[in-house]
Amino acid sequence: MFKIGCHLSSSGGYLKMAETAVSIGANVFQYFTRNPRGGAAKPYDPADVEKYIAFASENGIVTPLAHAPYTLNACAAKPQLRVFARETMADDLRRIDALPGALYNFHPGSHVGQGADEGVRLIAELLNEVLSAQQNAAVLLETMSGKGSEVGGRFEELRAIIDRVELKDKLGVCLDTCHVYDAGYDIVGDLDGVLREFDAVVGLERLRAVHLNDSKNPFASHKDRHEVIGGGALGLDALTRVINHPLLRELPFYLETPNELDGYAAEIALLKSRRDD
Ligand code: FE
Ligand code: FE
Ligand code: ZN
């Protein structure tokens, strides 16, 4: 099954997101757990979750992917910011745990001058405090473009975090096509080579999701500006190879392209037409 969808607004709740997904031909979706720039989550609505679960199973909606707020920095220098990061992630994970197939994606963090090694240490420390053996949801480290002091622009940094986390079976990786290309992994010219490197350093078994984006900026620019599918430096042919690659094709693909709903519907239809049977 081709699992394809996009980022949706969570303001109407879970059932609304699933209905919207169906209306645009998607069977997966991503959403923010709360305002991406910070702030409180909406009150938890168990009736909405129950309706969502029934609707999702009837309509083949799988792997709802929660995206942590951008303000969550697990390796911030200020202790109170790390407390916010820990409490936000713990609260988010409680909220999504009843959703079948729930995934939780976060930007590993920005070390803000403390150095990548200290960033890795703090990120792993937070994960060791937050992850629990009882949780259902998997937590995914997103591959980053390496702008500023971002941790996770190199596969080795993701591996170093994973190495330090105790509950490794709760941890995975989400590969963002715009980010890895901007970070200097040539998925346009040598997708096989990049996947070989990812497998050697991180392990392909850890890869649980793909953010499918084109990039406004050239290879290795370390910029992170998403472009519509086929409108950027990656191009439609390279992204077509991503969705059909034997090592990737069973993963869920989430568009985070600059689109309104009709644009997403068109991209989903385009990608379905480019998918090999
Ligand atoms: Fe992201
Ligand atoms: Fe992303
Ligand atoms: Zn991005």
Explain the layout of strands and helices.
Layout: E1 4-7, H1 14-23, E2 28-32, H2 46-59, E3 65-67, H3 79-96, E4 103-106, E5 109-110, H4 116-130, E6 138-142, E7 150-151, H5 155-164, E8 171-176, H6 177-183, H7 191-201, E9 207-212, E10 214-215, E11 226-227, H8 235-244, E12 253-255, H9 261-273
Parallel strand pairs: 1-2, 1-12, 2-3, 3-4, 4-6, 6-8, 8-9, 9-12
Antiparallel strand pairs: 5-7, 10-11
The structure holds fe (iii) ion (FE) (2 copies) and zinc ion.
CATH topology group: TIM Barrel
Number of strands: 12
Q: DSSP helix count?
A: 9
Assign the CATH superfamily: Divalent-metal-dependent TIM barrel enzymes
Total domains: 1
Helical coverage, percent range: 25-40%
Give the ordered list of helices and strands: EHEHEHEEHEEHEHHEEEHEH
Whole-Å distance between the termini?
9 Å
Strands of the biggest beta sheet: in what spatial order? 1-2-3-4-6-8-9-12
Class by SSE composition: alpha/beta
**Broad CATH class:** Alpha Beta
User: pLDDT under 50 segments (min length 5)?
Assistant: none
Using the 3D structure, state the CATH architecture: Alpha-Beta Barrel
Largest sheet: 8 strands, parallel, barrel
Tell the overall outline.
globular
Beta-strand percent range: 15-25%
> Can you list the ligands bound to this structure?
fe (iii) ion, zinc ion
Radius of gyration using CA atoms only: 18 Å
